[in-house]
Amino acid sequence: MSTTAEGAGGASLSLRDVSKVYSGQSTPAVEDFTMDIRPGELVMFVGPSGCGKTTTMKMINRIIEPTSGSILINGRDVLSLNPNDLRRHIGYVIQQIGLFPHMTISENIGIVPKLLGWSKQKTAARVEELLETVQLDPREFSARFPRQLSGGQQQRVGVARALAADPPIMLMDEPFGATDPITRERLQAEFLRLQASIGKTIVFVTHDFDEAIKLGDRIAVLSQRSRIEQFDTPAAILAEPANEYVSSFIGAGAAIKRLALIPVFEADLGPVAGSPWSVPIDATLRDALDLIVLHGAGALDVVEAGKAVGSLDVERISAALGADVPIGRLPTTGHPGGRLS
Ligand SMILES: Nc1ncnc2c1ncn2[C@@H]1O[C@H](COP(=O)(O)OP(=O)(O)OP(=O)(O)O)[C@@H](O)[C@H]1O
């Protein structure tokens, strides 16, 4: 992709016994929060409203000062960094986007480089590169104002702006929360592709457990005062929720959600069935199941490089989840539709 890939990758991030007591409050909003995040890891904070997700995240870039504890980036305490250093180290994307309405898209993206004293030329080159990174044509968008962009486009600009100084760490506070479901899915997919190439260390706050599963390398399920109920990979949390609280967060359909994490090639494929329906080998078992349900198909062929290499049916999909989690009887419809591949 762009030269962002050659900039800073991720940094390690450690929070040690971090607490926050807001003034006038008797109980802490966050209490003794300890977590180690690896360089390049995308960690999702998920939990109910008021549990302390945002407070925890905002302490990382010191928008909120911790009452006690320490926060380390590559072993260095953030309290020892001056505000310019913090901006260089930490990009920040929020739901409300926060673009300045009277500034062009270029100017909005160039804010941090300007604050850091970059030359006009270097800033302009970086802005152009970032617009391309988030798939907005610089010729079309640089001179526009935020109001002349759709919500999804504005959100992309918000991501570009956060990436401007190539920070090793990104904080994302419900960044896609205000977009409609279709735009949201598209932004999530784009964001995953982008992260695959830039490998930032990211803390991402969301209310939406499905978003956490889809995006996270690891998910921290939080309860009141930012207590960590479970901190593990999406697959591990879905397969073995630590307690009732985590189970209630997962909600119904844990097996179906797990399917979205398992690629077709991990299943034990049957012989080629000659089915009219097919699925690419790098699709997920959830994609395969959707097609089976949609078409009432007994089996699907699995296609690799244009050639059928095997087949899948409900039994094989169910077996891929392990015998302890059967999908059960599936409703089928004769609904017509296209192929996935
Ligand atoms: N400035 C403040 N002064 C006093 N209390 C606050 C302040 N900001 C947040 N709180 C309280 O701290 C607790 C944690 O709030 P926080 O915003 O971190 O939660 P959250 O999990 O991010 O919630 P949401 O998902 O609704 O944004 C809440 O009880 C909230 O009322």
UniProtKB/TrEMBL annotation:
Residues 13-250 form the ABC transporter domain. Keywords: ATP-binding, Nucleotide-binding, Transport. SUPFAM superfamilies: P-loop containing nucleoside triphosphate hydrolases (SSF52540). The keyword S-adenosyl-L-methionine does not apply. Its EC number is 7.6.2.9. GO terms for molecular function: ABC-type quaternary ammonium compound transporting activity; ATP binding; ATP hydrolysis activity. Belongs to the ABC transporter superfamily. This is ABC-type quaternary amine transporter. The lineage of its organism: Bacteria, Bacillati, Actinomycetota, Actinomycetes, Micrococcales.
